[in-house]
Design goal:
By secondary structure, this protein is of the alpha/beta class. The protein contains five helices and eight strands, in the order αβββαβαβαββαβ.
Length: about 190
């Protein structure tokens, strides 16, 4: 191998290594499953869920004009127990600002759901998701996951993991002011019981 050919081969190899580092290094150490939702900036999925209390259908797109907090949860989800009181408080505190909190039950039995709500309270509509159509439409990978929809019906943020009071309040206040909001990862989600 001539010195000139060896120099060209090392240069090409070096460029390939640098290119691969530029592509993969920023992703090193991050979980690719926790990437931001592809729904951000798009209309809320056109799904209808069923209110647990009165079996009334709730079409998510019919809520346009309100800020909607769509929280996917399950009675077997440990972090969901902790955030339930936060969601009830937000539903009450922001009701006059036309904010609608909506709980969508993920892969659970209605009896377990009612026992959970009887124990921890019913402060906002909870709905069953037959066939997990809403969860699939939102790309839910586990619970809790919370999506924020602005009054024009656009999904503007997602929280992966449990929400707490300060995060929920600051996100809703930003949306009310017309400011941009970022998605957050606050913890792990439970994909199954």
């Amino acid at each position: 191998m001539s010195p000139r050919f060896r120099w060209i081969a090392f240069t090409v190899l070096g460029l390939v290594v640098v290119a691969l580092m530029l592509i993969f290094l920023p992703r090193f150490g991050s979980d690719p499953l926790l990437s931001d939702s592809p729904l951000i900036g798009k209309p809320v999925p056109d799904v209808t869920i069923t209110n647990i209390d009165d079996d009334a259908p709730i079409a998510l797109r019919s809520l346009e004009g309100k800020i909607v907090v769509v929280n996917f949860w399950a009675p077997w989800c440990v972090p969901c127990r902790a955030e339930h009181a936060v969601l009830i408080a937000a539903a009450e505190a922001f009701a006059s600002a036309d904010v609608q909190v909506l709980g969508v039950v993920y892969q659970s039995d209605v009896g377990d759901v009612n026992r959970f709500l009887d124990e921890l309270g019913r402060g906002y509509p909870a709905a069953m998701d037959p066939g997990s159509r809403a969860a699939i439409s939102f790309g839910v990978r586990g619970v809790p996951e919370t999506f924020f929809v602005d009054p024009s019906g656009i999904v503007v943020a997602k929280v992966t993991g449990p929400v707490d009071g300060p995060l929920l309040t600051s996100t809703l206040e930003a949306i009310l002011l017309g400011e941009s909001v970022d998605s957050q990862e606050t913890g792990e989600v439970q994909p199954a019981p």
